[in-house]
Amino acid sequence: MVSNTPSLRVATASNPLNCAILISGSGSGMEAMLLHQQQVNCLHTTSVVISNKPDVLGIKRAESLGTPVEVVELPTNIEGSARRLAHEASIEQILHNYSVELIILSGYMRLLSPEFVTRWEGQIVNIHPSLLPDFPGAHAHRDVIAAGAKKSGCSVHYVDSGMDTGQVIAQYEVAVLPNDNETTLSAKIKQLEHKLYPMVIDAIASGDFSNLPGN
Amino acid sequence: MVSNTPSLRVATASNPLNCAILISGSGSGMEAMLLHQQQVNCLHTTSVVISNKPDVLGIKRAESLGTPVEVVELPTNIEGSARRLAHEASIEQILHNYSVELIILSGYMRLLSPEFVTRWEGQIVNIHPSLLPDFPGAHAHRDVIAAGAKKSGCSVHYVDSGMDTGQVIAQYEVAVLPNDNETTLSAKIKQLEHKLYPMVIDAIASGDFSNLPGN
Description:
Two copies of one chain form a homodimer. By secondary structure, chain A is of the alpha/beta class. The first copy, chain A, has helices at residues 28-37, 57-64, 80-97, 114-119, 140-147, 182-206; strands at 17-23, 44-51, 69-71, 102-105, 124-128, 151-158, 168-175. Chains A and B meet through helix 1, helix 2, strand 7 and helix 6 of A and helix 1, helix 2, strand 7 and helix 6 of B.
C-alpha cells in the first residue's frame, strides 16, 4: 500500500495542486488529464505542458484545452552530458516559472538524469503500459505478446533514475486473449491509462490513496 | 437530481447488473465500458454486445475483450414498418436469451420504436455528445461550432421514443475555444464520454446517483 508523499501538501479545490505535464507525442493521456482537471472540484490543475518535440499532436491538443505549452528541444549546439543538463535546466526553469509542484510524465520519451530526479523526489510520476515490475521499457506490448503473458495492464509509479523502476502507486489489469496483437492490446490498455492516471493524481492531491486499484 | 429507476434492482459485486451494449460502429465507448466492468468490484457486467452492422471495428474490440457479439442486421426481405419490428424482435430475443436487465446504447445509430422503448422504460440509456437539451441529433459537434456555443460536453440520458429527448442523468462539460473545430471538439468530448458513461452505469447499478456530475 502506497501512502502519501512527504514532499507534497494536501491540496484543496480552491488551491489545487499545480502540475506540469511532460509529453513527446500525441498527448492523448495528457488530454484525458486536462479534461479531468477541468471538471468541478478537481484538486489538481495543469499550469503548463512541456513538449521536447515540436509539431507533435499533443501541442495542438493542449492548446485546444486552453493550457499553455512550452517546447524545449534538446539543444543542438552542445555535446555529451552537458547537452542533457542544459536541456533539463531549461525545463526546470519553466517548472519554477510556473511554480509547479508535481511533474506528470505522459508519454515523455526521455530518461531524466539522476540529479533531476533526486531534486524532484516524490514529485514526479509516470504511467507505463504493463504490470510493473514486469515488462519495463519502450516495447512493453510487444514484449508481453512475445512472452505469451496471460494478462497485462498499466501502472502509475513514482519516478526514480531507472527506467520504469520507481515505486508503483496503482495498477489496472486486463486479460491478454489469444487473438490479441500489439495493436489491440495497446488500444485496450490506452483506455485504462486514461482512467487510471487521473485517479492517481486525485489520490496524490488529496492524500487519500485508499480507493486506488491494484495496491 | 435524478433518482433511481424503479425498473431496476440494486446490484452487488457478486450479482452484477446484466447489461447489453448496442453499437453501430467503432465501439470505443463500448470498449471503455467493458474495460471498466472487468475491474474488481464493478457492479455491472455486459453479457452481450449487439451490432446492427457487420464488419465494424467494435465487433473486433468486443471479441478482444472476451465479450460475445451478435450481429443483427436490418432484414432485407421485409418492407415498411414490419421491417423495423422484425429487426427489434430479433434484438429483443437476444436480450431475453442473455437475461439482460439494462440496455446501453453506445453509438447505436438507429432510433428504437416507441413500443420497444416503452417495454424497456427506465432500462435503456444513451450517451450524446452535447449538453442536452441543446444540440440533439446526429451532428452535434457541427451544430455547436456553427452556433458559436462557448461550451459543450456530453450527456447520459434515459431513452424515450424521441431523438435524444429522454431525462438527463449526468453531464460533463468542456469549453469550446476559438481554435476548436469539429475534429478537436469531437476528440475532447469523446474522452469525457469514456469517463462519464461508466460512472453513470455505476450509479444506476448501485442506486447511488449522488456523485454524478452535472445534476
